[in-house]
Structures are given as structure tokens and as C-alpha cells.
Amino acid sequence: MKDLSLIKETMSSIEIAELTGKMHKHVMEAIRVMEPAWVKIAGSNFRLSEYKDSTGRKLPCYELTKTECLYVATKFNDEARAKLVIRWEQLEREKQASPALPGNYLEALKSLIVSEEEKQQLLIQNEIQSEHLKIVAPKADYYDRTLMAKNTVSTTVIAKELGMSAVTLNRKLKEMGIQYKVGQTWVLTAKYQNMGYTETSTYTETIDEETRSYISTVWTQKGREFIHNLFRTNKETTLFSSVSELKNTLQEEDDLRKRVEALGKPILNDMKQIPILLDRYKMMIAKERLSVYERKFFLFVVVSLYDPKALAGKKMKHGLREIIGASLGFENKSTISDNLSNISNYYAHTPKFRKDTKQAYICVGGYQAN
């Protein structure tokens, strides 16, 4: 029994003879003459097969691939070669138009069995889903109306926006530690429950004269944005995960710039107020002893909050270094660092210092405003 893939991928010497109008024995002779050169270059012989003639005798023939066939055709005239080329193109078009077949009859049988099993499974699933829809249709209708009324969004809608199913999205959110299931309802973990990401509603429905209550969890627009940010692709900026966040950040930046202008200029124009910063800070931590190093960084942090450029190397206002040094009791004023990265690291990794610095900033800000 011949391999199905072989029938599709080869052409017999008999078919070549019929196609070109030559006698089969002449085609066989041409193939045998050209085979040694092919073996020398390609490293393989032409595939020898057999067929039965009209009397039932078994006679030899060749099964040639497209490349082998066109190689042998170089011995034929132009018309014969043209017929072979056209026939191969026809076979390739038929192959592309037809669905892929299994490699042999055993695979075909297995494929048929699998196909029938899948059809049966699909029928069963359709029946189950049909019955389920009959039950949940009233609930779904109410659920959709609730979403539209409250401007909230279901998990299914968000999942569709992200290109996944609601089941997959719920599973991923669970794996991230964002939610867990209580009965049939998903609820947020303690870390996220007071963020305003979700809303719940209770409703009732009657099935077979039995009234039942259900709790549904839906996502607010804030929650929807939160989920989208979780699954943001790497192609988008890592600094701003959404247009809304960018808008808020720009607004905060504008507010900070205005605050710098309002508070930064007065303190730098009237540098006598720099010691006031230190005095206010000392009042807040009077019971604690602070090293000169810590006091130095405090001054730099507070002043940089007002106007960071004032501490950036050559842009430091003339006389500012001396006043800061005098306030801290430095004999050598050049020991004050202009490296804001050191300040940022110290500020970021010292919670107590960071808290007190912010408090001093608020106090001085209030003082300046007055």
C-alpha cells in the first residue's frame, strides 16, 4: 500500500511517459542514463518502484520528486518539458487548495476517530451551555443593566479588551494576589479592597418559584484602568502606564513648578531664611542628636525641594554654599557636596529622615506663605 504523502509529492515514470507522449521504456532509459550524475551530486538514487501491466506482470518504474523529474526532463524536447512544468504547477495548486491529509491510512483512521470525538464533545458542551444560558439569562440581563446604570464594567468586558477570557483574567488576578473567591463571588484581597476598584450589588431572582439572592462584583473605571496597567505591554513607556496617569502626572508637575516659583525664589533671594530651615528642623527633633552629615543632607534636601537647580554645580547661587556651610558650622565650606544623586539615595532609604524633612518643608512652606 503506497504512502499517501508519496502519491502527492512524486510523479511516476509511467505518468511522465503518458504526459510527454513517449514510450515508457524510453523514459526509463533516460532516467537510468542520468541517474549516475544525480547520485554523484545529490548523494541518493532515484526511487525504484513497480507496477502491473495489462497482463498482470510486475514491471519496474520510477517515482521521482519534482526536482528529480525536472532534472530528467532536460533530456526531453521543449514541448515535453513544458508539459511537465505545467503539470507540476497544477499539482501544487491542487495541494494548496486541499486540506492537509494524514501521512498514511493509519494516521487517517486516527484522525477520523479524533475528529468524531471532538464533534461529540462539542455537541455535549453546546447542550450544557444552552441549559446554563436558560438559567442565567435573567441574571445576566440584570447584571448588564446594573453595569450601564453605575458606569461599571464586568470582568468579561475587561478580559475581552485584553484579548483573553474572563476565566483566564480571574485566574491571573488570583495568581497576582489581587482577588480570591468566596463561594461564587470574586472579592479583592485586603491590600486592594479599599482602593475603589470594585463595587458589589445584591439582587434576587426567582427560578421555579424559588427566590434566591446573589452578590455580583463589578469593576469601576478606576479598577478597569488598574487592570489595564497590570497587563500593559513593553512597547509602551515604563514611566506612564496610561493616558490618565500621564495627565495626572503632568498636573502634579505643573503644581510643583508653581510651588517652586512661589517658595523657591523667596528663600533663594533672601538666603537669611536658610538658617530658619535648620532651626525648625532642630525643634522637631530636639530630643535626638543629629550628626553634621545628617544635618548637611537635610539642608540639601529641603533646598532642593524648593529649587533643585540651585544645587546643581555651577548653577548654585553665589553665596548659597557659604550660608549653608555657616548654618551647619562647617569650617571648610567646600565639603558640602553638590551631588544630588547622593542626596536622593539618602533621602529615599532613611524613612525617619524623609518624614522629618517633609514636615520641615511643610512648616517652612507655611511660614513662607505667611
Task: Write up what this structure looks like.
The protein has 3 domains: 4-97, no CATH class; 131-230, no CATH class; 247-369, no CATH class. Helices cover 61% and strands 12% of the residues. It contains 15 helices and 7 strands. It has helices at residues 4-9, 13-20, 24-42, 66-72, 78-97, 105-150, 155-161, 166-175, 221-230, 243-269, 274-284, 292-306, 320-328, 340-349, 351-369, and strands at residues 10-12, 47-52, 58-65, 179-182, 185-188, 198-207, 210-219. The protein has a 3-stranded antiparallel beta sheet. A two-stranded antiparallel sheet has the order 4-5. The longest helix is centred in the middle third of the chain and has 46 residues, at 105-150.
Describe the protein's topology:
Layout: H1 4-9, E1 10-12, H2 13-20, H3 24-42, E2 47-52, E3 58-65, H4 66-72, H5 78-97, H6 105-150, H7 155-161, H8 166-175, E4 179-182, E5 185-188, E6 198-207, E7 210-219, H9 221-230, H10 243-269, H11 274-284, H12 292-306, H13 320-328, H14 340-349, H15 351-369
Antiparallel strand pairs: 1-3, 2-3, 4-5, 6-7
Helix pairs in contact: 2-3, 7-8, 11-15, 12-14, 12-15
Protein name: Prophage antirepressor
GO molecular function: DNA binding
Domain Antirepressor protein C-terminal: 132-232
Concise summary:
The protein has 370 residues and is of the alpha+beta class.
Total strand count, please? 7
User: Helical amount among residues, as a percent range?
Assistant: 55-70%
Q: Mean of residue pLDDT?
A: 68
The count of domains is: 3
The N- and C-terminal alpha carbons lie at a distance of 101 Å
Indicate the multimeric state: single chain
How would you describe the shape? Answer: elongated
Main sheet record: 3 strands, antiparallel
Q: State the order of secondary-structure elements, H for helix, E for strand.
A: HEHHEEHHHHHEEEEHHHHHHH
Strand order of the largest sheet: 1-3-2
Which structural class fits the helix and strand makeup?
Answer: alpha+beta
